[in-house]
Amino acid sequence: MWRTKLLGNVSFSILVSLVIATVCGIYAQDFAYYLADRTSSNNLMLLLTLPTILSWVLYLFPIVLICLLRIKKKISNKISVTYIFITLLIAIPISLFSLFVFAMWMG
Q1: How far apart are CA 97 and CA 86, in angstroms?
Q2: What pLDDT sits at residue 3?
Q3: What is the structure's pLDDT at 1?
Q4: Of 39, 54, 64, 79, whose CA is between 20 and 30 Å from 31?
Q5: Residues 64, 58: contact at Cβ < 8 Å?
Q6: 48 within 8 A of 78, measured Cβ to Cβ
Q7: In this structure, are residues 23 and 51 in contact, taking their beta carbons and an 8 Å threshold?
Q8: In the prediction, which pLDDT does 7 show?
Q9: What pLDDT score was predicted for residue 76?
Q10: Angle in degrees, 0-180, between the axes of helices 28-38 and 44-71, rounded to the nearest 10
C-alpha cells in the first residue's frame, strides 16, 4: 500500500516539475519581456537567465529523485528507467532550445 502511495506522490512531483520546467524553458524569453515591461529593470539578460536556469534545475530534480529512490530500493529498476527515459526525452530538446535562445541573447 505504501509503495503505491509513494509512487503516486513521486509521479505527481515529476509531472509538476516537468511541466513547470517545460513552460520555463519554452517561454523564458517571453517571461523576460513581460517582466521587463512590468518592472523598471533594464537587465533583460538577468530576466532571461532566471527562468532558463530554473528550467534546467527542474529537469534535474526528477533524475536525482529517481536515482535516490532507486538507491534506497523504494522503486523498481524498470520504473526508474522508464521515468528517467521520459524525463530525458522531454528535457534534452527543451534544454537545447533554451540554451540556443540563451546563447543568441548573450551574443
Answers
A1: 18
A2: 62
A3: 47
A4: 64
A5: no
A6: no
A7: no
A8: 76
A9: 86
A10: 130
Helix H, strand E, coil C: the string for 22-64 is HHHHHCHHHHHHHHHHHCCCCCHHHHHHHHHHHHHHHHHHHHH
The number of angstroms, rounded, from the C-alpha of 33 to the middle of its chain's C-alpha atoms is 21
In whole angstroms, give the CA distance from residue 57 to residue 33: 22
Which residue bears the cell 506522490?
A: 9
State the pLDDT at residue 20: 96
- The one-character DSSP state at 107 is -
Report d(CA 5, CA 47) in Å as an integer: 38
C-alpha cell at 100: 540556443
Per-residue pLDDT of the chain (107 residues; tens, 9 = 90+): 456 677 788 889 999 999 999 999 999 999 988 888 888 777 888 888 999 999 999 999 999 999 998 998 888 889 889 999 999 999 999 999 999 999 998 87
- Alpha-carbon span 65 to 16, nearest angstrom: 13
SS3 92: helix
C-beta separation of 9 from 25 below 8 A:
no
Total length of the chain: 107
